[in-house]
Design brief:
The chain is of the alpha/beta class. It has a single domain, classed as Metallo-beta-lactamase, Chain A (4-Layer Sandwich), CATH 3.60.15.10. The protein contains 8 helices and 20 strands. The strands form 3 sheets. The chain has a 9-stranded mixed beta sheet with strand order 6-5-4-3-2-1-18-19-20, covered by helices on one side. Strands 7, 8, 9, 11, 12, 14, 15, 16 and 17 form a 9-stranded mixed beta sheet that branches. It is globular and about 45 Å long.
Amino acid sequence: MKPTILAVLLALFVPQARAASELQVYFIDVEGGQATLFVSPSGQSMLVDTGWAGFDGRDADRIAAAARLAGVKQIDFLVVTHYHADHVGGVPQLAARIPIRNFVDHGPSVETGKNADELFQAYEAVRKNGKHILAKPGEKIPIRGLDVTILTAAGNHITKALPGGGAPNPLCTQATLKDPDPSENAQSVGIFIRYGEFSMVDLGDLTWNKEHDLMCPNNPVGMVDVYLSTHHGLAQSGSPVIVHALGPRVSIMNNGATKGGEPAAWQVIHSTTRLLDLWQLHYAEAGGDANNSSDQLIANNKQEEGNWIKLEANSNGQFTVTNSRNGYSKSYLP
């Protein structure tokens, strides 16, 4: 019996409709930098950072490959968290591979000197080919299908709580501060992403004292489903004041083999009361077996590289995380 026209149409269009109802997030391995690709159910894309320059275009190639896998033909919004080589260095190489329409950043760099100046100027040269959006806490990144709020930028933070936030943060009373950080890390653009009942936070490399400023005396964010470990899991960031207050069910660490994944930061995440799993882009050599997640949750184990972690979220709050190295996948209910 021949299939009916209706059956053919359903076969063609239902899979696309199902895919379009999900938020897709690719955590791309850029060897201890950041490159996180969000694909909205609307089809628009948002990339947070671009990894390193050099290495024969390694990071730009990996980002472009993830974009192709996701069916993305342009980057609608590029969010540059701050001007360090592992976050903004890859912009010129990426722009040569895929169009970038809107550039979101915190404004001028606070760092000077030959290397810092050249890095920022290379970024500016590409940025002029698109639209520049100056990141301001409390404002939105207008990607269709997602609610993306800027939490921090240029050393400032939101002053009005988000829906579900605003409760006193009891961790503030016993919090300790570190020496002030004058670098670009403290200027990081941090964002809160909501898709229906699903929520996630990405704070770039925001450092310890700025985390405290954001979360004290009240927690303006509330709890989240997913926390992208701040600063690659380095101990200069990821204080209990913020990690425990966010109370993620899942954390994803964008560390490299020899960068990030420090035991102190790893343990702060693991001591949160709601945490179910911590996924890592790399096995962290500094942590050893005692301070690394299980093999199935690590995208690049020991000598491996280039594997990604993918998250797919439904508007009801259910989400699934998949390890491209071994195909291991786990779903998390609302």
